[in-house]
Amino acid sequence: MLFKILKTLRVSLAIVFLALSFIIFLDISSNLSTLLIGYVTYTQFVPSLIGFINSIGWAFAGFILILILTFLFGRIYCSFFCPLGILQDVLIFFQRKFSRKKTFKYRKPENIVRYGILILSLVVLFGGSAIIFSFLDPYSLFGKINTMLFKPVLALGNNLLSRILSSFDIYSLYPVEIRTIKIPAFIFSLVFFIFLVWLTLKFSRLYCNLICPVGTLLGIPSAISLFRISLDKNQCTNCGLCSAVCKAGCIDVLNKKVDHTRCVVCFNCLSSCLQNGVRYSIRKKQKTFPRADSDGNGRRKFLGISAALLSSFFLVDNTLFAQRRRRQGQNKPPVPVNRQHPTAPPGSVNINHFNNLCTSCYLCVSACPTQVLQPSLLTYGLNGILQPHMDYKTSFCNFDCTRCGEVCPTGAILPLSIEEKKITQIGIAKFIQRNCIVITDGTDCGACSEHCPTKAVDMRPHKNGLLLPHVTEELCVGCGACEYACPTDPKSIYVEGNPVHEKAEKPVVEEIKAESSDDFPF
Known about the structure:
The protein is about 45% helix and about 10% strand. By secondary structure, it is mainly alpha-helical.
């Protein structure tokens, strides 16, 4: 009875946590409580670890809680808190529900592969880059899948239902616009999701025990956890029922052993045993942790090759990308935009800080109310592949919005107050006179000035009674409202990102004084 209660508890908590994880990424209103988002992201191991390493703040100490729980109960993170792991469990459940019941079997640990990936990921992380975790961290992958695949589908369904209801004069729903479908990020998310579904239906939790660095890392304290799954040698009859339901493939019935480094504590084995031969109890004696690789030379060779391949990426100087962009310039009108630096979100301090801490979970992309934060491809270079950037062709940054810093789980985007945000200069507007329709068409425009919240862009006399934009760089915060509003293509005004964010001057607000008069005003 106790074992059934444990499994019921695990399933219930996992469903609740998966539902909350879906909610924070699929919120199409962008008004979800940041407190709720914080509860979910606090328990995510990699974002918490990265944030703690770089800020040494207890707001990012959720990974310590996960480590403590792992030392006590084993890898419960993988079955209780990891949204990608729980999603795999859901796929396995429906596979067993609607098709012939799938049985599992013991698989030998591929220690060279899984510990090699873990060591390489940690070496790169402590070297100052989260690039490997951005492609392997389960939370970040879950975020990409939701933001790039599920949320657009939800928005389309919402808009269709909204249109149907409006025909009956019911306006409880309103249409929303989704601009986050960027081809590179969409393709990556789609390919990975298809791969994950295939891998799960074919090999169950193999991703968690072969590829995922978080699962491998948590397997180390799990090997010496206080509570653990074990086979009672006196009660076990080697029937194999426990191994047949083990999604991790870690139960060796022949030798009556459990590989605790790979056990995800799903409790399936407890409820399957008819002889009371499987137990979840306090370990009786400490066992030695299995060596990652008996062949030390093979492991060193593997890591050497991996490090060499990775270093080849980082040796590519970002100036190559800048040179390529500079070569796009032409002497003939119109003049293409020659942006030297991308624009990182407000609160990211500088581009290097953002690139090194961001795992591309896309929570900021999903939460941004104007959707100006968009996934990039090589905007930052290879070290920032698929990371979000300020895409002013898509939208602009609200002057009084600090949403991205409030939801970022790694500290790549630090929270700002409204007052700080309004003077944080993430970039500076640049004006290309040759492209402006005041010059090309001889007509007034002023869209850039009208949309500038700080009045860094104002209209000044040109000739023939026309007004031409002028940028006061000290007042500009780089919000991109001018670039987004500009009607020309290529743009006649654009934001050049600041590699290091600076402070803008506060705009001077002229007070309007009412003239006193004894006469009746009208």
